[in-house]
Automatic annotation (TrEMBL):
Residues 1-25 form the signal peptide. It comes from Streptomyces fumanus. This is Secreted protein. The lineage of its organism: Bacteria, Bacillati, Actinomycetota, Actinomycetes, Kitasatosporales. It comes from the Bacteria. Keywords: Signal.
């Protein structure tokens, strides 16, 4: 009888745990393409929004003059990640690839990614933000 009671209790706990689902509520995985230019300097790539807490930004930056780098951060309402930046791309040199992971442990995880292109002095020269629905050029 004791084994039967334990089996029923285990099955009930498993069913309750399965019904609760994941500890976060988000949409499905989404891949969003982005791209922007400042003069002839460009960046483009993909943001992979997961169905969890994260977004991964992958792409490359091309510098037509001076030096350029890409910095990104993620947000969801008032919560935000720290900036992450690529290595510098230099005029006349190869495109600089980058992959940066963003994580927010708030309900819904990363919902918006801001992408900045900076010049050799570190000043932003172009800005775009992307959500699961699309990208918008800011400057």
């Amino acid at each position: 009888m004791r084994a039967f009671t334990m089996a029923v209790l285990t099955a009930a706990c498993t069913a309750i745990g399965s019904a609760a689902g994941p500890a976060y509520a988000t949409a499905d995985d989404v891949n969003m393409s982005f791209g922007m230019a400042y003069g002839a300097s460009t960046t483009s790539g993909t943001i992979h929004f997961t169905d969890g807490y994260t977004a991964t930004v992958s792409g490359a930056v091309h510098a037509a003059s001076g030096a350029r780098k890409i910095c990104v951060n993620g947000s969801n309402g008032d919560a935000g990640t720290a900036d992450q930046c690529s290595a510098w791309a230099y005029a006349g040199g190869p495109n600089q690839p980058f992959t940066m992971g963003l994580r927010l442990t708030t309900a819904g995880g990363v919902q918006r990614v801001d992408i900045y292109m900076s010049d050799e002095s570190g000043s932003p020269v172009a800005h775009e933000f992307c959500t699961r629905k699309g990208c918008t050029r800011v400057s």
